[in-house]
Amino acid sequence: MIEHDLTSENYFSPENEKKYMGSSQFKNFLRCESSALAELHGEYRRETTDALLIGSYVDAHFEGTLDIFKAQHPDIFTKSGDLKAQYRHADYMIQRAERDELFMRFMSGEKQKIMVGEIAGVPFKIKIDSYHDECLVDLKCVRDFKPIWNEEKHIKQPFIYYWGYDIQGAVYREIVRQNTGKTLPFYIAAITKEKPEPKLKVYWIPDDDLDSALEEVVGLAPRFQQIKEGKLQPQRCGDCPFCRFTEVLTAPVNYHEEFEVYDVECE
Predict the structure, then answer these.
(1) Where in the chain are the domains?
(2) How far is CA 124 from CA 99, 225, 231, in A?
(3) pLDDT higher than threshold 90 for residue 182
(4) Which residues touch 158 (CB under 8 Å, ≥6 apart)?
(5) Strand order in the sheet with 200-205
(6) What is the distance between the alpha carbons of residues 132 and 77, in angstroms, rounded to a whole number?
C-alpha cells in the first residue's frame, strides 16, 4: 500500500484538495477549468441544493456518520424538530435499499477506504464507498435511471456517462491497482429519489469503458495539474454559474452569429 496521511476528517481539506486530484475535482475541471480553480481556492462555492443534501444524507447513513451529518445540517429539520419531508423520503430510500439482499451485499464492504497514487504523474486520492477484495462499489442517489439530455452535445446519454461515473470508476480502479496489484471491477449501487417508490439497481461498468475513461484522465490530468499550480491559465466554459456570475461584457454581439447553429439544426 502507498503510504499517506489522509483521513476521513482531512480528506476534503483545502490543503489536500490542492495536494491531490480526485475524480470529482477532475470532473469539475472537465466541466469548467475556471470554475474548478476558483472553487479550489475558496473563491467560489457551488449552491447546496436539496438534491445534493438528500444524496449526502443517504451516503452518511451507509458510511455510519448520519448522526454527525444531522448535527452539521440543522436546516434539514422543521422548527418542531422533525425531519423535513424530503429527508423523510431519504429515510425511506435507505429502508428500501436495506430490504434488498443483493444491494446490501454490494454495500457490505469496507466503508470509505482511502488510497492514493499517481496518474500521468499527477497525485490522486480516492475514497471508496464499499471496498471488497473482489470489487469496488460506489453508492449513488439519482433522480431516476432515464437517459439525460446533454445540451452541449445535443444528445441523450446514459446517466452513468452523463455524470462521469465511468471516469470515477477508472480512477478508482487504477489507484487500487497501484496499491494492491489487482485490477478490480467497478460497480454503481444506485437508488432513485422517485416517489412514492424509489428504484434500485447495481450497475457494472464494463472494463472497456473504464479503459477509455482512463485514457481521458491520462490525457487531461497533467493540464489540470498545471492549472492548479498556476502554470497555465484556465479556460472558461462560458455557461456555468461561475462564468455567468463573473462574465464581463466587452462589445455588442450580432445575434445571427450566436444563434446560427440552431438555424442549421432546424433545416
Answers:
(1) 14-266
(2) 35, 11, 19
(3) yes
(4) 147, 148
(5) 110-119, 122-131, 136-142, 186-192, 200-205
(6) 35
Indicate if the pLDDT at residue 262 is higher than 60.
no
User: Omega into 74 within 30° of 0, i.e. cis?
Assistant: no
pLDDT-derived band at 261, boundaries 50, 70, 90: low
Burial class (CB in 10 A: 0-12, 13-18, 19+), 84: middle
Specify which residues 215 forms β-bridges with.
none
Class of domain 14-266: alpha beta
For residue range 58-99, list pLDDT tens digits in order.
999 999 999 999 999 999 999 898 999 889 999 999 999 999
Q: For residue 31, how many other CB atoms are within 10 A of its CB?
A: 14
The CA distance from 176 to 131, in Å, is 10
CA gap 267, 42 in Å, rounded: 45
42-73 burial, b at 16+ Cβ within 10 Å, e below that, comes to: eebeeeeeeeebbbbbbbbbbbebbeebeeee
In Å, how far from its chain's centre is CA 235? 21
Radius of gyration of the chain (CA): 20
Distance (Å, rounded) from C-alpha 147 to C-alpha 35?
26
Q: What is the pTM of this model?
A: 0.91
Roughly how many angstroms between the first and final C-alpha of the chain, as a whole number?
58
Q: How far apart are CA 157 and CA 70, in angstroms?
A: 34
Is residue 115 within 8 A of residue 124, CB to CB? The reply is: no
